[in-house]
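re: ur question from the group chat, yeah i did fold both. here u go
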Amino acid sequence: MKPEDLVVTDLHGKIVEGSLRPSSDLPTHVILYREFASIGGVAHTHSRAATSWAQAQREIPCFGTTHADYFHGPIPVTKPLSPAQIRHRLRSQYRPCHRSTICKTRPIASARRARRRHAPFCWGATPTEAAHVAVIVEEIAAMASQNACG
């Protein structure tokens, strides 16, 4: 991916800059930015280990201090989407699924969720912080996979 591949949109999903089509995950990005003013960057990856946990529909358990140093408790997955929500991908249908599972009080303190059957979304006060959280989530997911397998 190169900088010229990026598409910039406003908070309603309208393209502001770029000639490519935005990601199909744009509704989730828009919801995070619109609902939580403290979020200044979102990193959505399809990294191997973290995506494996999300696609297995399993939260990433805390097996040790490396995980606990960054996150308090397991890294959760979102509630399941209904077949209609998956088919239509309407903003109004995304909102209850994501908002209710993201963070009730402090989104920056929570900073990560794995979208069920999909992949992780990580966020922070800046894009750099969001990318850093994504790297940490991937490493923790890889470590948890090794621990879970014995």
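okk and heres the other one u asked abt
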Amino acid sequence: MTITVRPANCESESQELVAVLQMNLPQLPHARLFPWLYLGNPEGQALTWVAADADSHRIIGVAAAFPRGFYCCGKDARGYVLGDFCIDPGHRSLGLALTLQRACLEGLSTGDADFVSIFPVARCWRYTNGSGSNPTKP
């Protein structure tokens, strides 16, 4: 199976994104959160990348970045908080995880992001460190 990584269209792919998120991150009510978090966030729409089967186009992984305004060093700054990162169990590998995370970070580096942040979740550090970013541990 060939897997492609590409930006997602959160509006037209919302049902499939919610299904993948709910299956892989079941602790959150994604159907309820998605409209606001991805589409209606006052700071702007989420930027989202997906890993998909190249033949069937079925989404098997998601990486999202949520815009957030910050005040840093005396000025307003545009930041993104990384979140909702998942890959279907049958396709999980460090290589795919890093490819998806790199696509997300590279996409953010060409946009309006002054910086990118993650909330400190210990199990995320191995992916973040391998993605080419330079994180500062809390």
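fwiw on the second one: The CA atoms of residues 130 and 136 lie 13 Å apart. The beta strands are 3-7, 47-53, 59-72, 75-87, 115-117. idk if thats what u expected
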